[in-house]
Amino acid sequence: MVQLPTDILREKLEDVELPEGEPDLLKDDSMLWRYLKARSGNIEEAQKMVRKSIEWRRTYKPYAIDCQWCHQKPGLHSLRQVGFDEAGRPVLYSSFTQAATSRNTAAEAISHLTYVLENAVKSMPDGVSQWVLVFDCSGMFLFFPCIWKVEKFAPSLLGGMQCYLGVFITKKGVFHSRLLSISDPSILPTESH
């Protein structure tokens, strides 16, 4: 009998201590498929990626994060979920010129990013396992004050969340090439406009 790659991956992860509050994490076939897809079907590489992700979830507890600024000042942040595309995928939009006027710390920005991404995953209808990410770089220049925020979170987002990334769209600006240079372009299904 032939085993599915998800079953093989699940077996290899039997020894993993799951995060508190997420006892069924490895029962989710669509999650395991996303990791396999992100690693071109390589079970060993997907296993490493899942282990790192679970360890991060155990220590950071992203499911418990609630962004106080989103409740107190809606629209304050430059990254937000703006709706769904025709395929039912959550659409996340960020305008970096708006981020330049924001004064939150890197820790607050990372917390907000985690909050938005966790909620995007929770909002996915059955059968949907990816999102659309739109980075609007128009009007952006390398000297804008938010460049350090982007450099802190972009490698993590673009390197660790690609299992959810359906489409990555950038609206070109001077900043466009800098953003892509701090990520691994081989993992991004990118459309530039």
UniProtKB/TrEMBL annotation:
**Domain CRAL/TRIO N-terminal: from-to ranges:** 28-53
Return the Pfam families for the record: CRAL_TRIO (PF00650)
Query: What molecular functions are annotated in GO for this chain?
Result: phosphatidylinositol transfer activity
Q: What InterPro entries does its record include?
A: CRAL-TRIO_dom, CRAL-TRIO_dom_sf, CRAL/TRIO_N_dom, CRAL/TRIO_N_dom_sf, PI_Transfer_CRAL-TRIO
SMART domains in the record, alphabetically? Answer: CRAL_TRIO_N
Gene3D superfamilies attached to this UniProt entry? CRAL-TRIO lipid binding domain
Protein name per the record: CRAL_TRIO_N domain-containing protein
